[in-house]
Design brief:
- By secondary structure, the protein is mainly α.
- The protein has 2 domains: 56 residues, no CATH class; 110 residues, no CATH class.
- The chain contains 4 helices and no strands.
- The radius of gyration is 22 Å and the shape is extended.
């Protein structure tokens, strides 16, 4: 990976800048953004253990993702036998489930961060609010562009990928043999 140079960051952000406000950004992370020791080579097991202890919180995002994944798999996933052959019924069921999940999570985040402003502007990267009456956006509105592209293309690609993975689980896998 090539080193980060001054031209790669805003004028007042230089290597070694601590997280906080700057002239161009309302908030920025540490520059350069540190990597997790989990992915460093050679491995540093003590650093990895300290990193896990520092990031652990009983209800962290990672825990919520795992709980959501198990809940979806246990209660909202079509049966394995059904997903081994391509049928519109179970594909639509997964697509509808993904639409509901995306809408619920994105709407909750939008309400929390923009409507109720519970986090304030402390970690908002850009000082500006969502754009309205702006010809840069297909619907002249940043929010409606985000909604349309997330639900129409994002969820569709997500569903196609997920359905492909479930179908692949039921197909016999070819094996190379040297016999």
């Amino acid at each position: 990976m090539p080193p980060i140079t001054k031209s790669d960051v805003a004028d007042d952000l230089v290597i070694g800048s601590k997280a906080g406000k700057s002239r161009d950004w309302n908030w920025h992370p540490d520059i350069p953004t540190p990597y997790s020791p989990l992915f460093s080579f050679p491995p540093h097991p003590i650093a990895v253990l300290k990193w896990f202890c520092r990031m652990w919180q009983p209800l962290s995002q990672q825990v919520m993702y795992v709980v959501l994944a198990f809940a979806v798999w246990a209660w909202l996933q079509p049966s394995f036998e059904m997903t081994t052959t391509l049928q519109a019924g179970w594909v639509f069921e997964i697509w509808l489930r993904n639409i509901v999940m995306m809408t619920t999570i994105a709407m909750g985040l939008h309400l929390w961060l923009y409507t109720w402003q519970k986090q304030g502007d402390t970690q908002k990267y850009d000082r500006r609010g969502l754009a309205t009456n702006n010809r840069k956006f297909a619907f002249n509105n940043q929010l409606w562009d985000n909604v349309a592209f997330s639900l129409l293309s994002g969820v569709t690609v997500w569903t196609v990928y997920e359905c492909g993975l479930w179908m692949a689980c039921g197909w016999p896998m070819p094996m190379a043999s040297h016999r």
